[in-house]
Structures are given as structure tokens and as C-alpha cells.
Amino acid sequence: MIAPKLRRLLGGLRQTPLHPQWLVFKDTRQQKQRIAKRIQGRLLDIGCGEKPLTPFLSAGVNYIGLDYPPTVAKGYSGKADVFGDGQRLPFADASFDCITILDVMEHLPNPEAAFGEMLRVLKPGGILISQTPFLYPLHDLPHDFQRWTGEGLSQFTQRHPADLIERHHHSKPLETAAILTNLALAKGMLDSLHAKHPGLLLLPLVILLVPIINLAGWAFARLLPDEGFMPLGYTAVFKKRA
């Protein structure tokens, strides 16, 4: 019971350097705004969760959220309009103007099938927006299956009728390093808590280190070039060929 309470407490600190993932969360609003600007017409959001894009969408967007029943059955709180499998979408061909799949592809055992299904239900000229992690810890196990580089994402266009029209990476190298260090420290504390391990004695030091690591990563990242060689993840925008 202590761990859920700790997570709830940390949830209130998401927008502060006191949170281990501050460098992840501080830019999420801007990322959603950039994605929302691309969206018009009928939207399918695969793995919609709590529909986080809703506040950023224009009034004319018809938002259909899809999520996977076993995910919700685990106690996950979602607001799906339709329950289904992203690898076998329950929609007719050419049904949507836009599809988003944000931090979901890594959880699909057969992403090739999912990509093909998304293009099937997307109208010619329609937009598919994918957000995927790269240098990010395993999560939601056992349902975490793969990671892609930017070039790996571009290879989908070699196997499917779509063009990659935009791609950008998330996080500068030192920010990524800070995020991974803080996540390792936080996970170590949670594991020590569950196992009643003496490593928990390091908690006061970890609480002190997390904001220092966050702020140092943020500050030093702005003093150095960013060639994208240590990205936290990617956003890729594909356009279905006519």
C-alpha cells in the first residue's frame, strides 16, 4: 500500500525538479500541442487512455478513442469509445483522416500488423502520428516488446504505402542521461521498499540527488550541441500514399 501512496505523492510533483521524470513531463504539453495542430477531421487515437489530446484539439475534430480491454481489466482507468486490438482494428477501410498512436507501438507484439491496419483504416492522404520511446526503461511488463531508432521508424515506409514527412527526437543527450539516472535511483528505492532491503537507507540521499541531477542535466544540455544520438524517443508523422 505504501508504493501507490508514494506514486500519488510524486504525481503532484510532476512539474517540479523534485520528480524523477521532470525532464520527461515538462515538455509534454508542448508535444501534445504540436501533435494536435496536425489533426483534423475524424481521428482515431489508439491506446487513448484518458484522452490526453482532447484539450488541444480544434472543435471540428471527431475524436474516437480505442483501447485494449485487458489493459483496462488490470485496473487501468481509461476513457475509450471503442475497445479493440490495435493489430486488428474494428473499423472499415478508409474510415479516418488521422490516426495517433502515442507510446503504444512498443507494447504491440506485432507492430507490422498494427501499422498495416492503421493504413488500411486511414484515408488516402491521411496522417498517422506515432510517438515511440527509445532510450527509456522497460515498462508495463510483460507487454514491452521493442524499441526503434529514427532510421528504424523510416523503414516502415519501405514495407507499407506511406511516406515519412516529419520526424524529430525527444530530449538532449544530457537530459536523457539525467532521466535514466533518476529513474534508476527511483526504481531502486521502490524495489528496496518492496523487499525491505537496507538500500532504503539511501532514500534521504536520493531525495537530495534527484533535483540536482534534473537541474544539472537541463542546464548542461543547453550548453552543448544536440545531434540526436541519445534520444529518449521519437515523434514520426507518416502520410498515406494516395
Automatic annotation (TrEMBL):
The UniProt record lists the keyword Transport: no
Signal peptide residue numbers: none
Domain Methyltransferase type: 44-129
Keywords per UniProt: Membrane, Methyltransferase, Transferase, Transmembrane, Transmembrane helix
GO BP: methylation
Transmembrane parts of this sequence: 199-221
Gene3D superfamilies hit by this protein: Vaccinia Virus protein VP39
Stored Pfam families: Methyltransf_11
Keyword 4Fe-4S appears in the UniProt entry: no
Molecular function per GO: S-adenosylmethionine-dependent methyltransferase activity
Name recorded for this polypeptide: Methyltransferase type 11
Species name: Halothiobacillus neapolitanus (strain ATCC 23641 / DSM 15147 / CIP 104769 / NCIMB 8539 / c2)
Source species taxonomy: Bacteria, Pseudomonadati, Pseudomonadota, Gammaproteobacteria, Chromatiales
